[in-house]
Prior knowledge:
alpha+beta; Jelly Rolls; 2 domains; 4-stranded antiparallel sheet; 44% helix; transmembrane helix; Emp24-like; GOLD_dom; membrane; GOLD domain-containing protein
Amino acid sequence: MDVLxxxxxxxxxxxxxxxxxxxxxxxxxxxxxxxxxxxxxxxxGDYEISDVPGxxxxxxxxxxxxxxxxxxxxxxKGKFSFVTETFDTFEVxxxxxxPSHQRGVAHEVSLITKRGVExxxxxxxxxxxxxxxxxxVELKRLEDLSDAIVQDFALMRKREEEMRDTNExxxxxVMYLSIFGMCCLxxxxxxxxxxxRRYFKAKKLIx
Length: 207
């Protein structure tokens, strides 16, 4: 049992999909973070904003069409979550608001995002709802993680096939364009040779 638990722990540490970032948000500025996500993916985020008196920070989560998935004004510390409906590019934006009469100071923004398996609360909601033991919860998490890895590999293979098809199509078009260019050059050279020959004959420079 101890060996099995250690293996689960090591495997879990090697496959954690957590993204953490910290940046400065300039006064009356906006900074957005973008990422492509598949459909039906759960995304959660923990944010913390440094406190600056008189200044406020808002955040919003949008897709490429401008649809707002999550939004909140005057934030300091909290969480957000959403589930993607389609494959799209999503962005999380933080915007600073400073009164005109006040000199602005940059905020420090800390953001930790999780997606897919790591965003699910297995120990809490899933474990209590199904009344699973800790080992069963870990096995369920590893099963979902394995499925996610298989889906990622399938997506990578699909993209590789699309890129290969695009590459082959581009190579074919370049080859045809090169052949067409060579034919044009040969035709132009032949026409120029015949024209010069007629010209020299007309001037009686050659027989």
